[in-house]
Amino acid sequence: MSIIQSIDPSTGRAVEDVATATPLDEVDATVVRAAEAGHVYGQAGRPLRSAVLRAVADELEARRARIVALGCRETALPEARLNGELTRTVYQARLFADVVDEGGFLEATIDHAGDTPMGPGPDLRRMLVPLGPVAVFGASNFPLAFSVPGGDTVSALAAGCPVVVKAHDSHPALSLLAFEALTAAVASAGGPDGLVGLVFGRHAGVALVTHPEIKAVGFTGSLSGGRALLDAVNSRPDPIPFYGELAGLNPVVVTEGAARARGEQIAAGLVASVTGSGGQLCTKPGLVLVPEGAAGDGLVAEAARLIERSPAAVLLNSRIVQAYESGTLEWDGIEGGAPSGSGFAVSPRLFEVDAKTLADTPVAECFGPAVVVARYAPSGVRDALRALPASLTGTIHAEPEESETVSQLTDALRPLAGRLVYNGFPTGVLVSWAQHHGGPWPSTNSLHTSVGPTAVRRFVRPVTWQDAPPGVLPEELRDGPCGIPRRVDGELVPSGTDS
Known about the structure:
This protein is an alpha/beta fold. The protein contains 13 helices and 23 strands. A hairpin with a 2-residue loop joins strand 22 and strand 23. Helix 2 packs antiparallel against helix 4, helix 3 runs antiparallel to helix 6 and helix 4 packs parallel to helix 5. The radius of gyration is 24 Å and the shape is globular.
């Protein structure tokens, strides 16, 4: 049986044996328990959902010191980054509890029986209901916010779905500690045993997505890993939703005016964005389009100088190191601080190409602290953008007097990205109602976001009750005052108003 070891990325050596790969019969038992718990959880209604989510936040906060210390050792991410990520994880659990309490996400709608332009109409009542057990795959680069207690898990719990998480092998000990917090939270809130589950190992992951009780999958990871799981999902007799957040270049376009006015400032922001967290962020800018000419030359020279001075970055695991080295091997460029020779350290790198070559020599995402600078002539930037695959983000740096150029670039980038950033950098994804973290393939294969309250839409489906007796209706669809906003006979009705 395969042993799951905890590796210290700074040395590349195993520190402890954490678990064994979950046997397939245990995967089955875990999913079945989750499905049974899901029935109880769904019947209990919104109060239990919000109680569980608030308890998750409390249990994670209570373990903050242990979580951050273990995370630093197991990921080599700095303490400040992990403290910030834990704060985000706690916040989003409480935010989703607020979403559940508010109830608008249910889209509760009532059309009473009566005459219509089409003749007499029946009584119709519609609401979003939980899909069922959800499989969540922990991400290597966000060991908290996109892992065991992360956004996929809390949005599924908010939707009313039980969750089984496939732990990422890059941080198995941290996954266990976070799972301890989840199970304690469910118990303290009075939730059913088995509402959350945890499995280890690649074979367990495949068994999870093909299990007949699993009704949706949340995945954050590589394009190749996502494709393999998507193939497994599509092999099911009943294909289910697969929400994959996968890959992207996240292009940045710098205009002539911006390069001239603040080239050094843009270069500093770019290098910080590329090298932060070892460049292991799904929103890291992988390609920056810089104008030809003196202003662009100055920006690139400053970025190269900063890259040369950047220290080596310790990556999360050996697979990421191998992909980084092979992905940058064919390019000639500027390298930063030399790796120490131990562990998973790599040098930050900057490469420069002619934008006209992008159509013939496409640039792919390189996970790690590397960036490609493509120099463009004024008439060639839109052609260069047309040669790029879609991404999570697209960024424009421009000056106020370049409004027409900004409009043209926005039109060119909008089909390629789920979030458009102006005079900033895409790393750093605020958890908020207006956030969208997604984009066209290959960045994701979904129209939904994986960050923010509307992420809950991934794990619900609509059901309409026609001429139903009141006793079978969910509380939110019954006549009388209701604690959530609803649309009644075509009119939006605020919370607390009698229908």
